[in-house]
Specification:
290 residues, alpha/beta, eight-stranded parallel sheet, 13% strand
Length: 290
């Protein structure tokens, strides 16, 4: 199957799976300079694919990379696009050229630092396209509540690498607890889906599994990834376990058998948890443990 090379059009496959972006676990960043792997990326186990015309592209190649992305989208491709930040020389062209492009599922706005940036991006696109705010600085973290409530905001994501560069903080669990928690709380304040954690750099799968578990423990519900082979691990760790699903099914069966009678104060919280687990299990195809 052909891909877009230069200005040549391409055909793109339909996705085999269709996980709603609200609960997408693995968000695969794909350099826009590599149109030959767009099809492969979309056919992978990634819940969402983000074609990156920001950090992954040299400034001199941005126009060509953007054009390749647009050609691919117009010829049947479907993906998110990470666009440049509002203070860059490229943001205005990004939103103008992506406006009303078929196949665009939404944009990831780099280096988001305030609500107005989200709102302006949303309206310049068409007032319908979803804006995923990538928060990558101390200012962005402190403005997270307002960003989450901005018109057009769809979900928050953590640009952990740039955040560490901005603040000088370490990458360990303790140092990153505050910004992660801030994004989780802000997402709840803005009534958004859970936020998306930053990527794990490198090819060590045990480390990826460990860091994905931290993502879950902090209340985040997705994770950026940089390689196709990371998607399966992220999906597995962020999904409910078969044991969780078995518990939820048993609780729901028992609750229904007693006619939905609330026995004590713990029943409603457990019912809410069971309903959430079952909803995710159905979406992700997780079967209960025997």
């Amino acid at each position: 199957m052909s891909t877009s090379v230069g200005n040549e059009p391409a055909s793109a496959p339909a996705r085999i799976r269709n996980i709603p972006a609200e609960i997408a676990r693995s968000w695969l960043l794909v350099p826009a300079t590599r149109p030959e792997i767009f099809d492969e990326s979309v056919a992978s186990r990634a819940d969402a694919v983000v074609l990156d015309i920001e950090d992954a592209v040299d400034p001199k190649k941005k126009d060509g990379a953007r054009e390749d992305v647009i050609n691919w989208l117009r010829n049947g491709g479907k993906a998110w696009v990470r666009i440049n930040d509002v203070h860059s020389d490229f943001w205005a062209d990004d939103v103008a050229n992506l406006r009303n492009v078929p196949g665009l599922l939404g944009v990831m706005l780099a280096k988001t630092e305030n609500a107005e940036q989200v709102k302006e991006t949303y309206h310049r696109l068409d007032g319908k396209t979803r804006v995923l705010a990538l928060v990558e600085s101390a200012l962005g973290i402190e403005e997270a509540n307002n960003i989450a409530r901005a018109e057009g905001a769809f979900r928050l994501a953590f640009g952990s690498g740039d955040f560490r560069r901005d603040t000088g903080m370490a990458a360990d669990r303790e140092a990153m607890a505050y910004p992660r928690a801030k994004l989780v709380v802000a997402s709840r304040v803005g009534n958004l889906p859970g936020p998306i954690d930053g990527p794990t750099v490198g090819t060590n799968h045990p480390i990826l599994r460990e860091q994905s578990a931290i993502t879950v423990s902090m209340g985040m519900t997705g994770k950026l990834c940089l390689a196709i082979d990371q998607t399966t691990i992220i999906n597995e760790v962020i999904s409910p376990t078969p044991t969780d699903v078995a518990w939820a099914k048993d609780f729901m069966d028992d609750f229904e058998a007693r006619g939905g009678v609330i026995r004590d104060g713990s029943d409603l919280p457990r019912l809410g948890r069971a309903e959430k687990i079952m909803k995710l299990a159905i979406a992700y195809g997780v079967q209960p443990a025997l």
